[in-house]
Amino acid sequence: MMENKTTELLTTQNLSVGYPANKIENVLFEQLNLSLSEGQLVCFMGSNGIGKSTLIRTLAGLQKPLSGKVLYKNNPSFDTSQKISVVLTDRISANLTVLELITYGRYPYLDWTISVQEKDRSIIDDAVQSVRIERLLKKRLFELSDGQMQMVMIARALAQDGEILLLDEPTAHLDLNNRVEIMNLLRNLSRSTKKAILIATHELDLALQTADRIWLADRKKNIQTGIPEDLVLDGSFDEIFQLKGFDLKTGRMHHTPYRNTMIQLVGSGYEFLWTKNALERCGFQVTESITPMRIILQKLGSKFQWIVQQNESTVQFNTLDQVINSLNQSIAKESY
C-alpha cells in the first residue's frame, strides 16, 4: 500500500522565539522544529500568555526570531507577503467598505500603478464566495458584528492567496454558532484549497473535533505535536491545562454524587447520555447494574419517554424535568 504523503510548506529549524526586555532576551519558545503541511488544519493551544501570538507573528515574518530559521519549502528566503496570509486579533478601524478591505489582500501582487486586474477581481470573488459574505460587500467596517468582521478578515487573507494561512484567536469573543461556523469554514478551506492553516485558539472542544494536528505549548518552552486523540490519550492535555472537574477523555464534567440513591439506567444513544448527565448533575449515582430504582428510556417516533420503576410502582414521564422533580419528591418523602 502506498503511503499518502503531504508536502511540508512551512518548517522551522531550531527556532527560538521571544522579545528583548531591558536588554535581556525573554525566550518564550526555543529550539522548535515544527512543520505545516498542505491541506492540514493545525490548532495551536496553550495557557494564556505563553507566547502563541508571538510565535504566530514570528512565523509570519512580522517579528524577528531570536535564533533559528523559518523556511518555506526548505527555502529560508521567500516573500512572506505572497506565501503567508495572516489574520491577527487587532480590530481595523479604518473607514473602508468590506470590498475595499478585501481588495487590500491583492496589494502584494500589484505593480507600481496599483491597479486591480481581472485576475485579481476573480481571486477576490472566489474569496468572498468561499466565506459567503456577498451581502456585506458595501457595508462599512464599523457596521459589522464581531462574527462578520472575522469572516471579512478571513476573506481578505484568502484574497492574498498565500499557501499558508495563520490566524490568531479567530473565534475570540464570538458566540457558539459563529465559533462553530468559522472552525468548520477553516477546516473545509484546508481541504478544498490545500492550504496549510494554523489557528492559535482556546477552543479546546472545537479543536479536538476539527484539527488534523495539534501544537501544544508547555511551560518548558517547548511545543508538543500530534493528532488530537493521541494527545488526549497520553495525558498531554491534562498535564498542560490541569483541567479541574472536567474529564477530557470522556468529554464530560465530573459530578460528585451527593445523594445516596443509585439508579439503574437502561437505554442507548444520545438520549441515554443526556439522561445520565441530568441525573449525575442532580447528585444521583447512575449505574447499568440492577438497583431498586430503574429508569428505562423509550423512543416513540421522534419523542422520548422515561419509565421510572421503584419497588412495585411504574410511572411514565414525557420530559427529564418531570423525572427529576419526581425523584426529588420521592427522596423528600423518604427523609420525613
Write the layout of secondary structure elements.
Blueprint lengths: L7 E14 L2 E9 L2 E3 L3 E5 L6 H8 L7 E6 L7 H4 E4 L10 H6 L14 H14 L14 H15 L3 E5 L7 H18 L2 E5 L3 H7 L2 E5 L5 E4 L1 H6 L2 H6 L4 E2 L4 E2 L8 E5 L2 H13 L3 E3 L5 E8 L2 E8 L2 E5 L2 H16 L1
Parallel strand pairs: 4-8, 4-9, 6-7, 7-8, 13-14, 13-15
Antiparallel strand pairs: 1-2, 1-3, 1-5, 9-10, 11-12, 15-16, 16-17
Helix pairs in contact: 4-5
How would you portray this structure in words?
The protein has 336 residues and is an alpha/beta fold. The protein folds into two domains: 234 residues, Rossmann fold (3-Layer(aba) Sandwich), CATH 3.40.50.300; 74 residues, 2-Layer Sandwich (Double Stranded RNA Binding Domain), CATH 3.30.160. The protein is 34% helix and 28% strand. The chain contains eleven helices and 17 strands. The strands form four sheets. Strands 6-7-8-4-9-10 form a six-stranded mixed beta sheet, sandwiched between helices. The chain is elongated. The termini are far apart.
Q: What is the string of SSEs from the N terminus onward?
A: EEEEHEHEHHHEHEHEEHHEEEHEEEEH
Uncertain segments: none
CATH homology-level superfamily of the largest domain: P-loop containing nucleotide triphosphate hydrolases
Task: List the domain count as a whole number.
Answer: 2
- Computed over alpha carbons, the radius of gyration is 26 Å
How would a textbook summarize the main sheet? 6 strands, mixed
Query: Can you tell me the CATH topology of the largest domain?
Result: Rossmann fold
Q: What fraction strand?
A: 25-35%
| Oligomer description | single chain
Which CATH first-tier class of the largest domain would you pick?
Answer: Alpha Beta
Q: List how many beta strands DSSP finds.
A: 17
**The CATH architecture of the largest domain:** 3-Layer(aba) Sandwich
Mean pLDDT: 88
